[in-house]
Design a protein that fits this description.
Blueprint lengths: L10 E8 L4 E8 L5 E7 L14 H7 L4 H9 L4 H8 L3 H9 L4 H7 L16 E2 L2 E2 L28
Antiparallel strand pairs: 1-2, 2-3, 4-5
């Protein structure tokens, strides 16, 4: 594409945006005469745009910097994040986000599936006495019983008066 003023092909793309109506707006500047102009291209013609999150698992794997096995090792590792970051060549923040399940959510969900089933509360346990856990767990209370390994449901007798 040539400059409309001096007909030079030496130009720079300044900006490229998608407009509200679906057209691509591109701003150019000529490096010779410094003239600026705008072009609009219809995005509906040509190859269809697909979002990265609507692609297959094989395409996602090609985009990822870390391999699936590396991510599994990071999630399961007990090493400090700094050491993991140096080992895999990423930032400590990336390691933190992987371990929290913010990045690579699909792989994280395989190891730590979301909790299903009813939420169980400590007050329904036979070991719950005087607003505290009979085993002395300091974190007891609320829905801790869902994760408790010694939880046993109390037998509720229906009292009819």
């Amino acid at each position: 594409m040539k400059c409309p003023e001096c007909k030079s092909e030496n130009r720079t793309l300044l900006e490229s945006r998608l407009t509200v109506r679906g057209a691509r707006r591109r701003r150019f500047e000529c490096r010779v005469c410094l003239h600026r102009w705008t072009m609009f291209n219809d995005e509906s013609k040509g190859r269809a745009y697909t979002h990265r999150w609507e692609t297959s698992a094989a395409q996602k794997a090609a985009w990822r910097r870390l391999k699936r096995d590396d991510i599994l090792k990071i999630i399961k590792s007990h090493l400090p994040q700094r050491m993991l970051a140096e080992k895999y060549g990423v930032t400590r923040q990336s390691i933190s986000r992987i371990q929290l399940g913010i990045m690579y959510k699909d792989i994280y969900a395989e190891i730590n599936p979301p909790r299903t089933g009813p939420v169980v509360y400590c007050t329904g346990c036979t070991n719950w006495e005087d607003d505290s856990c009979g085993f002395g767990f300091p974190e007891a209370g609320g829905d801790f019983a869902t994760d408790c390994c010694v939880y046993s449901p109390s037998a509720l007798a229906d009292v009819v008066q």
